[in-house]
Amino acid sequence: MAEDRHADPATQLTVDEMILDYLLFMAAKALLEDRKAQRTGTQVPPSVVCHADLALSMVDAFLTVFRANHPSHRASLNMQSRLRLLRYTTLFTRRISSWPSSPLLPSLENLRSQNGERASTWLSHRGPLPTFADSRLQVFTTALPLPEATLSRNRQHVSTVLMAPTGLTLFYGLQKCLSLLDTLPGFMALSAAQIAMHSSRSVTRIWMSLAAQYMTQSALEQYLVYGEQGSEALLEAFAWGFDADLVAEEGTEEWETNAMFWDGDEELKGWEDIRGMHLRAIKFAPEPEIALETHLEDLAMSNPIEEFENDMMAFLEASLGCQPSPTLAQLEAGELEGLSRPETDRLRERVGFEC
């Protein structure tokens, strides 16, 4: 007679959380490993399902089961952090090529609409930024968009230096492709959530420089790759800082991101200067007679996007490393926090690991 085996209702939630925690952690790790492999030219062919694709599929499948088994369960802060990191890592590491995980155009259009509304609200509360308050900004309308041949050359250049998977480079720079500007709010929200979870952490000048570089790269990409015209993309990219008039519920992504830019009794010290310096670098050419196209291309050359991606990969790896190791990952390694090695080995045997 076959053994009738069912999950113990008393422990099913705990076990399911352990499994989900492990899958989220391993999927984020796989994405970073796959992207590093692509950058070194050792990625698997596009026709082969890669490690990260499999890991993401397992997360999707188990999330469906988890939500069906625990429909009213509210994820812990740690689980929310894992989900947020995986979501952002997926978007950032896979933005230049088409993957099964790539968002569809309607979703992208909705995201862009939300991002634009956020920036418009921020600017309406803060008022015109001093850096933008003159007629020289009109050149972003009169001298743009760049010719299609120039955009095509720039897309090919970025695809090459970032080692986009072979055969998928035509995806980059099209409206259906995620841009850095699309992912910028996700970076801000991820950073804010990490700071909110750890009271000992604070915003450093290194992070501020990375964030300002993100804004710079986002704006440059819009004009040099996506063919944008006008100042809207520039305004959206740099519309970040404390908003005293923001209406948001405490604990939400919007609230946490805004709070990240507040330092007790004033806006984050040093942020206005760092942001302003990067803004001025984009807006003002060294000489007035230099064409905007030449100025933007010179900026892109002096701020290589591949170096920016290196910094972002280091940021994501550090973010993953700062999270506690999942219990199942500890068991897999044979070292479970709080247990001796013999106790860990016995537990591994009980749950089916080979010792």
Keywords, separated by commas or semicolons:
single chain; 355 residues; globular; mainly alpha; 15 helices
Explain what the structure shows:
The chain is mainly alpha-helical. The chain has 15 helices and no strands. The chain has helices at 9-39, 51-69, 77-93, 105-126, 139-142, 148-161, 180-197, 205-224, 232-238, 253-260, 271-283, 292-302, 305-322, 327-333, 341-351. It is globular, with a radius of gyration of 23 Å. The model has no long low-confidence stretch (mean pLDDT 87).
Structural class: mainly alpha
Q: How many beta-strand segments?
A: 0
- Give the terminus-to-terminus CA distance: 30 Å
Largest sheet: none
Strand content: under 5%
Taking all Cα atoms into account, the compactness measure Rg is: 23 Å
**pLDDT < 50 stretches:** none
Instruction: Return the average pLDDT rounded to an integer.
Output: 87
C-alpha geometry = globular
Give the SSE map.
Elements lengths: L8 H31 L11 H19 L7 H17 L11 H22 L12 H4 L5 H14 L18 H18 L7 H20 L7 H7 L14 H8 L10 H13 L8 H11 L2 H18 L4 H7 L7 H11 L4
